[in-house]
């Protein structure tokens, strides 16, 4: 994408961002309100850009006729996803496969494979409304991967998952990332450390840092900041550097709550 700008009324959520993502697992980090969801929604073709150019899987995301072609090859788990509570897991994931226009003969096997990958085979014929929050999240992941997407977009996918499920989910991400482009927005730096090769740090609608997970960790190792792990220290150091301050504890505290750029 080049010059991607997203405005929500007076708020500039993304400010002329240039980014490209190749095969592999990419972590999208940033404080609350940084612009991560705004970016993912444009990539998922559910929200228009206010400016700039976005090319997805060789298509122009702004071209109406190209969007169905993109959506067939895309998987998307929104931060809050809607589902029909009366559907069973099988019915819901099948319905999403149908929306993605998957060939009918392949749907039944694809649904079982996706549900199996998120560890819910024993609940495949249970109604979604009878599942726990973490299980519903896994149904959301199953619907996102049912079409074996070439571009997988996940907005806060580990919210509600217990630690064991998070470990399994990270393995799934690494597996999908072998052949596809996976973009994961998260607040959990340890998700990034465990599953992502590349990190993009967004703040106030701008790219604050890009590098490999190992580079961000090394940045943290060299940083005197307090923090639970080197990569968390790297996150703080990269944000500070972007803000152009090396001493501003007050500024860091203020900014770590996230701010939209009001124009
Ligand atoms: N529908 C909307 N109307 C008005 N402002 C919005 C809307 N959606 C987002 N914003 C603003 O745009 C900015 C970016 O929001 P966005 O949700 O993309 O951030 P985020 O990085 O995903 O945040 P979080 O980590 O809290 O989910 C914020 O200032 C937010 O308040």
TrEMBL record:
Judging by the UniProt lineage, the source's domain of life is Bacteria
Record has Nucleotide-binding as a keyword: yes
The protein's GO terms of the molecular function aspect are: ATP binding; ATP hydrolysis activity
Q: Name one Pfam family in it.
A: ABC_tran
Provide the alphabetized UniProt keywords.
Answer: ATP-binding, Nucleotide-binding, Transport
- The reply to whether Transcription regulation figures as a keyword in the UniProt entry is no
Q: Which residues form the ABC transporter domain?
A: 1-229
- Enumerate the CDD domains for this protein: ABC_drug_resistance_like (cd03264)
Which residues lie within the region annotated Disordered? 221-263
InterPro entries, per database record: AAA+_ATPase, ABC_transporter-like_ATP-bd, P-loop_NTPase
> Which family does the record claim for this protein?
Belongs to the ABC transporter superfamily.
PANTHER family in alphabetical order: ABC TRANSPORTER, ATP-BINDING PROTEIN (PTHR43335:SF2)
Q: Please identify the protein, giving its name as recorded.
A: ABC transporter ATP-binding protein
């Amino acid at each position: 994408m080049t010059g991607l700008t997203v405005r929500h009324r007076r708020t500039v959520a993304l400010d002329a961002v240039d980014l490209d993502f190749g095969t592999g697992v990419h972590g999208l980090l940033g404080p609350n309100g940084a612009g991560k969801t705004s970016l993912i929604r444009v990539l998922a073709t559910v929200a228009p850009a206010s400016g700039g150019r976005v090319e997805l899987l060789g298509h122009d995301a702004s071209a109406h006729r190209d969007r169905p072609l993109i959506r067939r090859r895309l998987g998307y788990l929104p931060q809050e996803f809607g589902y029909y509570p009366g559907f069973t897991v099988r019915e819901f994931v099948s319905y999403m496969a149908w929306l993605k226009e998957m060939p009918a003969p392949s749907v039944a096997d694809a649904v079982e494979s996706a549900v199996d990958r998120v560890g819910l085979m024993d609940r495949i014929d249970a109604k979604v409304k009878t599942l726990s929050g973490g299980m519903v999240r896994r149904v959301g992941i199953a619907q996102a991967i049912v079409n074996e997407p070439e571009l997988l977009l996940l907005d806060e996918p580990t919210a509600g998952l217990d630690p064991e499920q998070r470990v399994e989910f990270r393995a799934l991400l690494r597996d999908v990332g072998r052949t596809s482009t996976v973009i994961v927005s998260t607040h959990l730096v340890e998700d990034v450390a465990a599953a992502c090769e590349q990190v993009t740090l967004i703040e106030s609608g701008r790219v604050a840092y890009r590098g490999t997970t190992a580079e961000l960790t090394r940045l943290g190792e060299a940083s005197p900041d307090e923090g639970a792990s080197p990569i968390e220290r790297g996150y703080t150091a990269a944000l500070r550097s972007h803000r152009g301050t090396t001493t501003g504890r007050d500024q860091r505290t203020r900014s770590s709550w996230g701010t939209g750029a009001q124009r």
